[in-house]
Amino acid sequence: MSTKSKPADASRRRFLKKSTVGTALAAGALNLKLGSSQSEAGDVTKLPKPAFTPFVQALPVPPRLRDAALGCAPGSPEAKLCSKEVWHGIAPEFDPAHPSHHPDWDRKPLRCYEMTYQECIHEWVPGIKTPSLGFNGLVPGPTFRARLGEPMVIRVHNPLDIEASLHHHGAHSPSHSDGHPCFYTLHGETRDYYYPNCVPRNADGSEDWSESPSTMWYHDHGNDVTAHNVAHGLAGFSIFTDPFEEDLIAKNILPAIDGPDGEHAPYDVPMALTDQLLNLDGTISWDPLDHDGRIGNLFCVNGVVQPFMNVERRKYRLRLLGCSLARIYELRLSNNASMLQIGNDSWLLPKPVTVTRITLPPGKRADVIVDFSKLPAGSEIYLENIMEQTDGRKPKGINTRNPIRLVKFKVGGGTVRNDITINANTPLRPHHEIPESEIVATRDFKLGRSNGAWIINGEFYSPFRADADPLVNSAERWNLTNGSGGWEHPVHIHLESHQITKMNGVRPREVWAYKSDVTHLGTNTTAEIQMRFRTFCGPFVFHCHNNNHEDMRMMKQFEVCGKDPVTGAKHPPTLNNEWFSVPEECAGIPHDFIKANPHIFS
Ligand SMILES: [Cu+2]
Q1: Is residue 107 within 8 Å of 150, Cβ to Cβ?
Q2: pLDDT tens track for 77-88
């Protein structure tokens, strides 16, 4: 029988009924009254929170995801679609016969990993055992670590009663493994996510190494349930290198990423910033009817509230990730020292930019060098947030009188040894602007609000509709306009980087003027961006990265269209109601649809 994602709908009803993972498990454990939900309370900063002493817990760094021996080989007959072991098979681009497959992808052996969506007990606050969700039971999940050009498969199991879709945020991935919100891995199912880990190719066939990413992340992206899943812990880092960045490390311009044990080295530190909200019984406060944007009152870094970090007198590379659902951070060091920002979102900048403040909306990353070498031993400084925000609408503004301290850095003694040599003039990565001559289309997207939910160009998101049909190997200009009054929207576009050329008619701030995968639209803001669409055809999405807005339909779908090999004509977008006309047991991957319309993924 055919279906329109029936299993997903059934699962959604169960999910809404439960609404908070494992509440029953923890309720009563602390013999306290249940906390009120966010929508009842208004200003969450005034809600009670568990008692704790800040800065007594060391900052944890997530472990690396280690190689795994998979039962059946990716792409083998046993692992094909709907096999018992791997329900959804693998991205069709894995097949060497597929038109998008490039021989380069087979030059290096395939790396294989395995990851499971798991319920876990996590201590966001020391001593408070909170039922949470973690990849392999960890919050944040284990870090992906890879080199460009070395393809990998991650076999993802979902034993949970949630609709899962793993998004590799910032990666250049095939449609099937990108984490499209409707390519589910449903309860009890497994999917092989195939990542070629390639850079796109230029028109002349050469590889565009300006596109190789450094600091990415991954998180669940299930349709309608992303906010719930991310709030409960389903996110992690993905850190890539290429020969350019490895050269910077070899020359001691940037610090090493890998320690001798293969885990993260001490001077390169990923930091995922989240604001958590707990009920007084220790469970996660989750309001399924909050579509404005979830704001918390516990400031966590790498999953723990207000940790400390011992640092040596030298420079550190901090990879800051805005992992909150709706909170927009304005970060500074408590001594107001300047930092060198070396990367924005997934990509290194052409050269460092000296900053004293960093704006970090949901989904964004800032890659910065902080210099502790001038500070005397025993100094204590903090990474602070000075943006006041009490609801999902938008921040109230900068408040320097009451900074929120996120991490305490405790500076050790000793002389400065073997410090990295980066300075404000160090070239990092070439950047090439997309020339005007490449732009073949301009599209306008206006973000707004309707009936308490979220629209783009007057429409709610539909997986059955292609809202844009860019041609593969072409470039377009998009005008993104925030037309929703007093709200802010960080817009994330999948597949490739985009270049912000103008914000309200002028060049954006320096750190946002190169490659981005999230463009933050403040109130009354129009961003002019340009973007290429390369390598992979098929459906991808762009959306507000306020995850509550995204789940309430502030998302659009673009289908990268191929060309007919004979006539050269562009294939029209083929998304329509056939999309889910597949056997019920295969819902989540439109296999028959691909077979009937092979060009959309070619
Ligand atoms: Cu939004």
Answers
A1: no
A2: 777 665 666 766
What is the CA(290)–ligand 1 centre distance, in A?
A: 13
- Ligand 1: centre distance to CA 293 (Å): 8
**How much distance in Å is there from the Cα of 22 to the middle of ligand 1?**
28
Q: How far is the CA of 90 from the centre of ligand 1 (A)?
A: 32
pLDDT tens digits for range 200-257 = 988 788 899 999 999 999 999 998 999 999 999 999 999 999 999 999 999 999 999 9
Mean pLDDT of the chain: 87
Indicate the range of 30-44, 295-309, 406-420, 467-481 predicted with least confidence: 30-44
Distances (CA, A) of 45 to 50, 283, 286, 334, 570: 13, 17, 15, 21, 53
**How remote is the CA of residue 363 from the centroid of ligand 1, in Å?**
12
Distance 423 CA to ligand 1 centre (A): 36
Residues of the chain with CATH 2.60.40.420: 6-31+62-240, 32-59+242-429, 436-560
Query: Ligand 1 centre from 277 Cα, in Å?
Result: 20
Q: Is 183 helix (H, G, I), strand (E, B) or coil?
A: coil
Q: How far apart are CA 561 and CA 572, in angstroms?
A: 7
Q: What is the CATH number of domain 436-560?
A: 2.60.40.420
Q: From the CA of 388, how far away is ligand 1's center (Å)? A: 18
Q: Residue 92's pLDDT is what? A: 79
DSSP per-residue letters across 373-393: TTSPTT-EEEEEE-EE--SSS
pTM over 0.85: yes
Report how far ligand 1's centroid is from the alpha carbon of 351 (Å): 31
What average pLDDT does the segment 475-479 reach? 98
Burial (CB count within 10 angstroms: exposed 0-12, middle 13-18, buried 19+), residue 336: exposed
In the predicted structure, residue 125 carries a pLDDT above the cut 90: yes
Query: Judging by DSSP bridges, how do beta strands 111-122 and 268-276 pair with one another?
Result: unpaired
At the fourth CATH level, which superfamily is domain 6-31+62-240? Cupredoxins -  blue copper proteins (2.60.40.420)
Ligand 1 centroid, distance to 315 Cα (angstroms): 35
Closest CA to 61 of 145, 118, 187, 119: 145
Strand 130-135 with 397-398, pairing: unpaired
CA of 449 to the centre of ligand 1 (A): 9
The rounded Å distance from CA 549 to ligand 1 centre is 5
**Which CATH architecture does the domain made up of 32-59+242-429 adopt?**
Sandwich (2.60)
For 262-317, write each residue's pLDDT tens digit: 899 999 999 999 999 999 999 999 999 999 999 999 999 999 999 999 999 999 99
Q: In this model, does residue 31 exceed pLDDT 70? A: no
Residue 495 Cα to ligand 1 midpoint, Å, equals 20
Residue 465 and residue 575: Cα distance in Å, rounded? 5
Per-residue pLDDT, averaged over 446-463, amounts to: 92
Distance 539 CA to ligand 1 centre (A): 21
Residue 554 near residue 524 (C-beta atoms within 8 A): no
